[in-house]
Amino acid sequence: MTYCVGIKLNAGLVFLSDSRTNAGVDNISVYRKMIVYEKAGDRFMVLLSAGNLSISQSVREILQVEQLKEPNHPEPITIWNATSMFDACRVLGQAVRHVYDRDAESLKNAGVEFNVNLIFGGQIAGEGMRLFQVYSAGNFIEATAETPYFQIGEYKYGKPVLDRVITPDTDLDEAAKCALVSMDSTMKSNLSVGPPFDLVVYEANRFQTDKVVCIDMQNPYFRMLHQGWGQKLREVFDSLEDPVWDESHTETPLRTQAGGRAKPLKKISRAEEKLI
Amino acid sequence: MTYCVGIKLNAGLVFLSDSRTNAGVDNISVYRKMIVYEKAGDRFMVLLSAGNLSISQSVREILQVEQLKEPNHPEPITIWNATSMFDACRVLGQAVRHVYDRDAESLKNAGVEFNVNLIFGGQIAGEGMRLFQVYSAGNFIEATAETPYFQIGEYKYGKPVLDRVITPDTDLDEAAKCALVSMDSTMKSNLSVGPPFDLVVYEANRFQTDKVVCIDMQNPYFRMLHQGWGQKLREVFDSLEDPVWDESHTETPLRTQAGGRAKPLKKISRAEEKLI
User: Which residues contact B35 (CB under 8 A, 6 or more apart)?
Assistant: First the structure.
């Protein structure tokens, strides 16, 4: 499995990926799932991949040389000369379709689904930052202010904290922290997601970044997050009062067949209200 | 969708279920997914169901009258005369198989998978409390001290908090609180899980309970949890320091094709360490 997240903020972009792949729990390996495409001052793009590893590796391989021929364009569009992230993403979509044409039938004959999920984001000089999610069919959607992040792979465990924290106004380091907490929750609940983690933080309109880091379990910051988040979460949980069982009954009936009779319902309320 | 959780503690059992079903987002309904079977002083059992509603309702219907005939038993085993939760669960498994025999082929012809998931737990006089998860095939597994809870339906969003809090020594009200926080996280991230919620708390060796409650969004305790957990989670998040980007570089290379050159990696560390 895999967990990758890409976040688009007013201040910039944050990308985080794990590096564990598995073909069954008895076959766990480490593969990096992030690639940075950078032409300093001109374009900065990051690709995160999940799904069938042979497909995503093939896509990454041919993306470098993929050419999108358009009648109204003098020369073919590549990720290196595209004038918009949208066009660059179309090149990526075409790369996915080329791998499909090449491999899908054989995969199907082997009973393997053609499954790849990609997050592709960045900025090209002349336009703002953009973030896309690309599907197995080569089609894609773009992140908006209402939905400023994409996740691929094992996304559910790590989604609640993103939903609670991330808005377009979130600052970059805070978003990086949030992505790492999201990764930590995912890693805790799914064995097939694991370190090292690749983190890239891009500041708007820089067209390059030096904030690229590989984080393993020895990383002091991630260790602090891992321990601190778990421990403080527990403290918060303990700080919330337990329910108090009220002797009065609610109206709502619980549909029950307990020996054929209906069950009376108690109320639960808060200690402080009992004291009033 | 559905989210149900059953927890087995030394002190007793906790059961929580949502009440939302959907046949597509344009067809959302409220169905209770919990039934309590109680013969005061003799047995107390709770059934939670997820999956295809027509299947789970049929199972619940026939479970009342289901009989397991055994050569070495003078009279057929039912959930009302079973001498162990294990036998009661076998009766439930047989009920699932009867519904399978009745409906599976027609469902298959209609392209519908025979899909039902059940949590069944309780206590019968003469033995300790037991908690089971029953699958579509009518087979089942039992909770242990290492894995003291079961979830069915949309389980992922709500799993991290259970993993962090629940142990066999957790007390009942704390476990009820944990189940409700788990439900709150699930509800927040999945539209198809919603109130009202049915909560049952059973104390060991009581063979009955009056702690049965239906919780809607007006419930003052759940409202407090819903707001308090979200707000305090945010405070904890804010209390964790942001990463500090260190000028020194790590050894680990990030596999990258950024314009063909390898990308140097920074370190992230903790503010306090920078100060040392």
Answer: A255, A256, A257, A258, B46, B47, B60
Asked if A143 and A9 touch (Cβ cutoff 8 Å), the reply is no
pLDDT single digits (tens) B120-176: 999 999 999 999 999 999 999 999 999 899 999 999 999 988 988 999 999 999 999
Contacts of B263 in chain A (CB under 8 A): 36, 38, 212
β-strand partners of A214: A198
pLDDT band, very low/low/confident/very high, at B262 (cuts 50, 70, 90): very low
From B157, B233, B237, residue closest to A156, measured CB to CB = B157
A-B CB pairs within 8 A amount to: 213
3-state secondary structure of A3: strand
Strand-pair partners of A213: A199
Give me the sign of the Cα torsion angle B165, B38, A269, B158: positive
Chain centre to alpha carbon of residue B7: 8
For B193, phi then psi, to 5°, come to -120, 125
pLDDT at position B249 is: 57
Query: Higher-confidence residue: A106 or A27?
Result: A106
The angle subtended at Cα A170 by Cα A167 and Cα A175, nearest 5°, is 100
Closest CA–CA distance from residue A222 to any residue of chain B (Å): 8
Alpha helices in chain B (DSSP H): 53-63, 85-109, 159-165, 172-189, 220-239, 271-275
pTM of the entire structure? 0.84
Residue of B nearest to A177 (CA): B242
B165: closest chain A residue by CA? A234
Give the number of C-alpha atoms closer than 13 A to the C-alpha of residue A186, restricted to the C-beta side: 32
Tell me which residue of A143, A138, A183, A137 sits closest to A159, measured CA to CA: A183
Do β-strands A261-263 and A43-51 pair in parallel, antiparallel, or remain unpaired?
unpaired
Closest CA to B159 of B150, B170, B167, B171: B150
Please judge whether B254 and A198 are an interchain contact, meaning their C-beta atoms are less than 8 angstroms apart. yes
**Mean pLDDT computed over B102-128:** 96
Residue of A nearest to B266 (CA): A213
The reply to whether A275 touches chain B by the CB within 8 Å rule is: no
Q: Which residues neighbour A180 within 8 Å (Cβ) at sequence distance 6 or greater?
A: A16, A197, A199, A215, A221, A222, A225, B243
Predicted confidence (pLDDT) per residue in A136-195, tens digit: 999 999 999 998 999 999 999 999 889 889 999 999 999 999 999 999 989 988 888 888
Residue B98: CB atoms within 10 Å: 16
Cα A21–Cα A32–Cα A67 angle in degrees, nearest 5:
110
